[in-house]
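Q: What structure does this chain adopt?
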Amino acid sequence: MENWIGIGIWIVLGAVIGLSMKAVVKRPEEQPGHTLILAILGSFGAVIGGMLGVGLFHFYHPSALSVGGMASAAVLAGVMAWIYRWGIRTMV
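A:
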């Protein structure tokens, strides 16, 4: 049960990071919207990053609420939201 709670925390953490990326990175030519996309991308990045962090740092005793899992979830959620805000949106 503890791992499911940790994964839920990853999802919420990723959505918050994705939405805060919209507030932090301002784009003058931006069209309205994209809030839901940023929340989903942040959540997706947090789940993948959390799994990678748990797999790399806590291989023998995996726990979703570990420091490695939470840190990796936050980092990858921020990277995915930043790539969307600057990388892909610039090319379109």
